[in-house]
Amino acid sequence: MPAPVPRATLIGLIAILLWSTTVGLLRSVSEASGATGGAALVYTTTALLLCLTRGLPKPGAMPAQMWQNLLRNPTAYSLAFIAAITWALYNNVTRRYARGTNGVTLFFILTAMALWLKYFLSAPAAPMTFSLVPLLQVLFIGASTAIAYSAWNHGIQHGNLTLLASLWLGLTPPLAFWQGVAMITLGSLICWLATRRL
Q1: pLDDT for 158-175, tens place per residue?
Q2: Is 81 helix (H, G, I), strand (E, B) or coil?
Q3: Which H or E run contains 68?
Q4: Using one digit for the tens of pLDDT, what is the confidence trace for 73-109?
Q5: Could you tell me if 109 and 54 are in contact, meaning their C-beta atoms sit under 8 angstroms apart?
Q6: What are the residues whose beta carbons fall under 8 Å from the beta carbon of 40, sequence distance 6 or more?
Q7: Residue 49's CB: how many other CB atoms inside 10 A?
Q8: Radius of gyration, alpha carbons of the chain
Q9: What is d(CA 77, CA 156) in angstroms, rounded to the nearest whole number?
């Protein structure tokens, strides 16, 4: 049974909060494992957590229309994937065509595989540092990213997409928006101060 619209919208808003928590840690993970290796670790952790919590992806369960469009225009979809327009398309297409299915897990598995391929084909690959702190940071980022993307996907499929988009894009920002900006800025300054002391 789908969640009521206000509840689903609230779940979607959780994604925005979780994404903002990872900004400070991404630099630390990249310093410990390199930019590509750090991203590969984060996407792999996220993909594994999504598989454990949401199940293995079932590409066959996704509507055929999504796959036909992808197969007919691979170049266009590849370019659109790296463009800003992808985010808007993702939100609208997911809501309209997904019919309750979730492509987030498959996306993270494929992205993690691409990042590992790039990492191993890079010459020379940046060495990874495996110690407790970077590994805990990767686990935290992976978990918060998995929860955030799952929450956002749920919110856009079942919640108020207009409200989520306007909050995400900052259209007509209310007082709460500026309070959020202040908290994120303060958090960024704290992260900056913490890294300066290292």
Answers
A1: 888 777 766 666 566 667
A2: helix
A3: helix 64-72
A4: 777 666 665 654 566 667 677 777 777 777 788 888 8
A5: no
A6: 33, 112, 115, 116, 118, 119
A7: 20
A8: 18
A9: 21
